[in-house]
Amino acid sequence: MTPKKVKGTRKGYSTGACAAAAARAACMGLVAGEIPTQVESLLPNGQRVTFAVCEPLLTKKHAHAVIVKDAGDDPDCTHGAHLTADVRLLSETQNQVLLKGGEGVGTITMRGLGLEVGGPAINPVPRKNIEANIREVAGSLLATHSLEVTISVPGGQAMAKKTLNDRLGIINGISILGTTGIVHPYSTAAFRASVVQGVEVAANQGQTAVVLTTGGRTEKFTIRELPNLDPACFVQMGDFLGPALDAAQQAGIEQIIIGGMVGKLTKIAQGEIITHARRNPVNTQLLAEIAATVGADELCCADIAAAETARFAGERLEEIGLGTAFYQALCARVIQTLSTRYPDVFTYRILMCDFEGVKLVDYA
C-alpha cells in the first residue's frame, strides 16, 4: 500500500529570496559574460540555496534573469511568480547599488511601513539581501561602476488583489517580502505579520482606534456602520486577535472596535485569542449560562449547552424573543474577558452581525 503523502511539509522560498537570487545571477552575467543556469544565493538567515535561472538575456551593459518562485506547500498567491531582475551598468558613479521596482512590484502610498512613500514595496530585509548578493559577486564592477537593479514581477498586480496590500497603502503590485528567505508550509506567519502591520499603519497615521474584523463579511459590515472612520483603521485580523491587540497596545491605540459574528465572538468571550475553528471548540455551556442571565428557561439552556454551535444559541433565543438581550450579554462578556486580559489599556465597542451581514448589536 502506498503511504499517504503528508501534506504541508515542503518548505519554499520568499519573494525576497527569489528576487535576490535573480539579481545575483544577472550580476554574475555582467561579470563573467554569461548568465549561469543555476545560482547559489545567500538567504537572509545565512543559508545558501541553489536556484534555477530562467530567461537569461545579456548585453554589454544590461543583464536580465528570472527565478520562478517555489512556495513549497504554502498556499501562497505568489507561487509560480517570475521574480525578475534587470541590472544595468551606470558609468557616472561608482560602488552604488540603486534598487528600483518595476512592473508588478507595489508602490508605497502611505507612511507607516518603514519605506519611502512613492518608492517600491521592497521590504528592508530583502533590500539588504539583494544588495549583499550583488556585492558578493560584482565587487570588480562596482569598483568602476554603479549598478541599477530593477525588480519586477509580471502579473504582480493581479496577484496583489489576493493580498491586504491595498489596505496597507501599497498599490499596483505585490510586496517583496521575507525575513529569513524561507516560506514555511501552511504557515500563518505571513498573515499574522500583515495583521500586526495593519495595526501599526493605523497608529502611524495618527489613528487612535482600530476596527478588528474576522473576515470579509464582517469587514464590509463594519465599514458600512462606521463611514466616518479612516480606511486605515480597518484591519482584517482573521483569527489573530491576540497579535492584533498586542500590537495595538504597543502602538498606543486607545479604542478597539471588534466586528464579528456569534461564533467568533463566543470564542473571544471564552478567552481564546487565536479563534481558529480547529483549535478549542465553542463553549456552549458558557452560552447556556449567558442565556440564563437574560431569562431563558432551563430547557432552553439545556438545548444550547447540548448543541455544537454558537449559531444555534442565537437562533434558539431569537425564537423566544431573547435574541437581542442575549447578543448584548455576549458582547458584554467579550468586553469583560478582554478587559481582564488587557486591564486599563483599551475602551471597547463590539459590532455583531448575522451571517448575511445584517447588524444584530452595537454594544459599548
Sum up the overall morphology in one term: elongated
How far apart the termini lie comes to 59 Å
Can you count the beta strands?
Answer: 16
Low-confidence parts lasting 5 or more residues at pLDDT below 50? 1-7
Structural class: alpha/beta
- Please give the oligomerization state of what you see: single chain
The number of domains:
2
Note down, in words, how this protein is organized.
This protein has 2 domains: 12-183, CbiD-like (2-Layer Sandwich); 189-363, no CATH class. It is built from 12 helices and 16 strands. It has 364 residues and is an alpha/beta fold. It has helices spanning 15-32, 124-137, 139-142, 156-160, 189-204, 216-225, 241-251, 262-269, 284-293, 298-306, 310-319, 323-341, and strands at 12-13, 38-42, 48-52, 54-58, 62-68, 82-90, 97-101, 107-108, 146-152, 170-171, 182-183, 209-213, 234-236, 255-260, 347-353, 359-363. It is elongated, with a radius of gyration of 25 Å. α1 packs parallel to α2, α5 (189-204) runs parallel beside α7 and α8 crosses α12. The model is unreliable at 1-7 (pLDDT under 50). Strands 4-5-6-9-7 form a 5-stranded mixed sheet, covered by helices on one side. It has a 5-stranded mixed sheet with strand order 13-12-14-15-16, sandwiched between helices. A two-stranded antiparallel ribbon has the order 1-11. β2 and β3 (48-52) form a beta hairpin. It is 37% helix and 21% strand. The N and C termini lie far apart (59 Å).
